[in-house]
Amino acid sequence: MLDNARNIRSDWSVDEVEALLRLPLLDLVGRANMIHRAHHNPEDIQKASLLSIKTGGCPEDCAYCPQSAHHREVELTKEKLMNPQHVLSLAKRAKQAGAERFCMGAAWRQVRDGDEFDNVLEMVAGVRALGMEACVTLGMLKPHQARRLAQAGLTAYNHNLDTSPEFYGEIIGTRTYRDRLETLSYCRDAGIDLCCGGIIGMGESLRDRASMLQVLANFDPHPESVPINALIPIEGTPLAHRETVGIFDLLRMVATARITMPKTRVRLSAGRSDFSAAEQALCFLAGANSVFYGDVLLTAPNAGTGSDRDMFAALGALTED
User: E strands along the chain, which residues?
Assistant: First the structure.
């Protein structure tokens, strides 16, 4: 067993993280697996369901996102904020299908006080009453809004960094990196867990990937969950021409996240449906221990629950017929 305390650091350099990403792949995965088993039950893979509770019309200009109002060529049906009772019925269905966490996303730049935010607070309280963890992603927050979410019982707030500080301006121009870090600090101050990761495959360099992981790994404490997203190129967005991410790139990110953030849940997120069960199993070996579970991720396709049940059954222990 490793010395757990000795392996928790918040002082990584970008050079150190990049050196990990460049290791021979089997060496990297082996090191990550050893650390993973020191801090986690390798059979514990959290299933999180994700629902878009308000779709489209976002004033942000994120180059990867089909919900941006700036990308007028994207074919997307805009939808107003869902009714809380309808959301809770879907959460109940997700729980029955095996989800442990229910995540709700609204295409907002920032939260505004009023009836819509009150409805989101009702959703959060309702999800917790079902016995599930509750997570939301709503854009930027003010301190009092983070406190209200905490009072409603919110487990975690998702607010991704997306990429490195150096590459960020190539992807987003309507908010700054500092804006993102500020919202995360408000959530941490309110006692809300952080769900914070990024996207690979947007044209960033390996150094950029290392820099993003270095920012995350130097949070103290580390984010409780880190989603690793592979870009889904969507027609009508500026990144529609990008090639899909290969499994070895994803595997290196998962393993490096595990080594630098030993206790964090590393989540296979967007783009997972492009990988086979065997390829995903490699990621679980490298330290991933959470997935987004369900047919859709906000507006993008995801591996279906039926396929996931088959995959998790295959990964389980064999029993005699």
Answer: 46-54, 101-106, 133-137, 156-158, 193-195, 198-200, 225-230, 265-268, 288-292, 296-297, 300-301
